[in-house]
Amino acid sequence: MAQERERGITIQSAAVTFDWKGYRLNLIDTPGHVDFTVEVERCLRVLDGAVAVFDASAGVEAQTLTVWRQADKHKIPRICFLNKMDKTGASFNYAVESIREKLNAKPLVLQLPIGEAKTFKGVVDVVSKEKLLWNANSDDGKDFERKPLLEMSDPELLKKTTEARNALIEQVADLDDEFADLVLGEFSENFDLLPAEKLQTAIHRVTLAQTAVPVLCGSALRNKGVQPLLDAITMYLPSPEERNYEFLQWYKGDLCALAFKVLHDKQRGPLVFMRIYSGMLKPQLAVHNINGNCTERISRLLLPFADQHIEIPSLTAGNIALTVGLKHTATGDTIVSSKSSALAAARRAEREGEKKHRRNSEAERLLLAGVEIPEPVFFCTIEPPSMAKQPDLDHALKCLHREDPSLKVRLDPDTGQTVLCGMGELHIEIIHDRIKREYGLETYLGPLQVAYRETILNSVRATDTLDRTLGDKRHLVTVELEAKPIETASVRPVIEYADSVSEDLLKASQEAIENGIHSVCLQGPLLGSPIQDVAITLHSLMIHPGTSTTMISACVSRCLQKALKKADKQVLEPLMGLEVTVTKDYLSPVLADLAQRRGNIQEIQTRQNNKVVIGFVPLAEIMGYSTVLRTLTSGSATFALELANYQAMNPQDQSTLLSQRRGFT
């Protein structure tokens, strides 16, 4: 994307398929920035293994933790690659230590760097005791030589490598019993005799079990260390056959794939990225989408090479494909060959489930788990240059929402404006830029707003009666309910029914009652923000025979609104976890500025020559922080933000906010 080239960051994940020493690799590059978390989430969903890339001078950073947790959640085996070994301040040992401490992982050091920062010229392979030196004149890194380490030429390096190898063998033996037996049995006297192949198989097993992570190093700028990294990927990360997915056994070799990303191409229409779990894909094939319950036809099948694509006649399981012609498929949809194949798989799953006495709903077991979309924290209004352009803007937003599910679009019921909800300032800025470049629309963004929430502080009761006669029908409902605050954080209201409410009445009207409650909880009495952490108890309900469900909903809504108006109300604001990396000289102005922003500093760590400030700041105070931070520190500091939780505002700030919203200030 043009925006990626300008900013030098990854915004959208891109896919490349290539061959290496007889293996086929599907590589997906994901963004590291917190605003694009959903890109990482949906790619991890379809991967078998991952390479976590670190900056050797910084080690584990704030965003590394987030991505690492996501990989833990999807149980993905991974390798660590310490990049930028030739950067000033790069430290191999510091980075390995930070992986051990901050990620609670066990790093297996498989390489040692030869030189660091300016003197970095190659790596030592600890497993095979060889050194790899890159030719200083070659820019693309193809030209390198591999030599065994000899006592005569490199005595120091050999000693260091032998120590590292022995430590590695002990570490792996602790984690893998089969390898431990081998070491204790045959090679207990002399670890040097242990063949490299045996050690590699053991490392492969340990990586797959996720009890440890292999660590390699290099510099991507000059492609130093990339070839051994590719070898390590083929050696230690799992192939599709080695990942066992529970749902595959039901399909018995029929097609099963997950659509994990949609791109819009000007010529070809929507391109859908798919991971094939079983069966095979061909062009002109009709496929069935379980989530959308519709059948579509794939017109062409492409292999992805970043922004170029190669057409192919068919593709087998374990691969990642680009399909053209699927109009209704969205992120997270499960694709199968036909409806009947899905039903057959459901029957097999059910028979198996009965044996194990596990009953969950049919469709749920067949659907591959989709992608969790985080809740947006920023929103702003977006307006087209003229009303005539509104349909074009709606179309552009619809396309962008299909590509990026973390972008939410809604209409403001009071003003009729279109509201964009996103993950951060950068996210909304990029969307605005893309609408301009890709769809040729000059849109206007309103000021960025914060997604507040509301709650109540005390429990309140209210009763309400709705009595209407429409035509010859009398609609009469009487409701008594109580709203009370709860301790546990819950975005949706917890609905309870008192014993006095009769079950027959509830059967008929429960859905109407819950719709009424949910609709009120979407718009609170103070700011019209969603209400959270509230439990609603229905104490009594009297319904005249023949009353319509709409009337029941309306009465419950009105009664709850009454109750909430009486309660003591509290605004909750999003609190962001902030991590600022700054040199010692600029620490005090940064701290002073954070104090003005109602910041709460948790700790200040030392990372080599820098200080890392960790704390929490309300999102409302951090708008445009990047420019302020640059000015304060002459551009030397960096920061990372992510949503921590929602917290209550103090009364003074709350009253200021309310008078601002009502237009009194």
TrEMBL record:
PROSITE patterns assigned to the protein according to its UniProt record, in alphabetical order: G_TR_2
Localisation: Mitochondrion
Pfam families for the chain: EF-G_D2, EFG_C, EFG_III, EFG_IV, GTP_EFTU
Keyword GTP-binding: yes
Protein biosynthesis as UniProt keyword: yes
Protein name (record): Ribosome-releasing factor 2, mitochondrial
Family in the record: Belongs to the TRAFAC class translation factor GTPase superfamily. Classic translation factor GTPase family. EF-G/EF-2 subfamily.
Its biological purpose: Mitochondrial GTPase that mediates the disassembly of ribosomes from messenger RNA at the termination of mitochondrial protein biosynthesis. Acts in collaboration with MRRF. GTP hydrolysis follows the ribosome disassembly and probably occurs on the ribosome large subunit. Not involved in the GTP-dependent ribosomal translocation step during translation elongation.
Keywords: GTP-binding, Mitochondrion, Nucleotide-binding, Protein biosynthesis
Main location: mitochondrion
Domain spans labelled Tr-type G: 1-241
Species of provenance: Equus przewalskii (Przewalski's horse)
SMART domains (UniProt xref): EFG_C, EFG_IV
